[in-house]
Amino acid sequence: MKHAPTLFTTALALALAACAAKPTPDVAPPSETPPPEPVAVDATPAPPLEPMPAEAEPPPPPAASKDILETAAEAGNFTTLLSAVEAAGLTEKLKGPGPFTLFAPDDEAFAKLPRVELDRLLKDKKKLAALLEYHLVSGNAIEASEVAKMASASTVAGPQITIDATSGSVKLNGVASVRSADIKATNGVIHVIDTVLKPPKKKK
Fold first, then answer.
1. Using alpha carbons only, what angle is made at residue 170 by residues 165 and 172, rounded to the nearest 5 degrees?
2. DSSP string, 92-116
3. Domain range 68-141+179-193, CATH class
4. Phi, psi of 71 (to 5 degrees)
5. What tens digit of pLDDT does each residue of 100-152 get?
6. Closest CA to 131 of 142, 118, 144, 116
């Protein structure tokens, strides 16, 4: 049969044409991942930062309640000075309104004096009063910060005492150092010194 190959070829061609005519199944496009939903942000403002508490200032020292002599007696290291004030008849003056600045020699300062000299002083009221008044400034309670700025101070006795604070400590007449300062009293202030001051001798 001579037409068999032709029929086979025709059938094959039709079969291929039929396959080509079938629609190609749609390919689904790749699915897109939806964007993540935005996270809700808390719109409440943060509380303001509280300022650091300021350091509390130390309370002021209690107000003085005793006069100069009572304050010196309470301190306990002015036994000789208090005895000398009484012997010189200056108790009433130092209990007055003042105000006074007392450069007060303590017991150690009086102990530097020869015993004979101290005994002689305690028996001579006039000379003892002049000595003690040379340690006293009247009319002003001068605190240590002000004393350090002064070159001299006039005393109740009359003569001045010289003041030098250039070395960092206060020196009186070049011999006495202020051991403790600004002891407040109701009628003045006490500065403790380590040496008894001697008034200059009067010129003849």
1. 105
2. HHHTSS--EEEEEE-HHHHHTS-HH
3. mainly beta
4. -65, -40
5. 999 999 999 999 999 999 999 999 999 999 999 999 999 989 999 999 999 99
6. 118
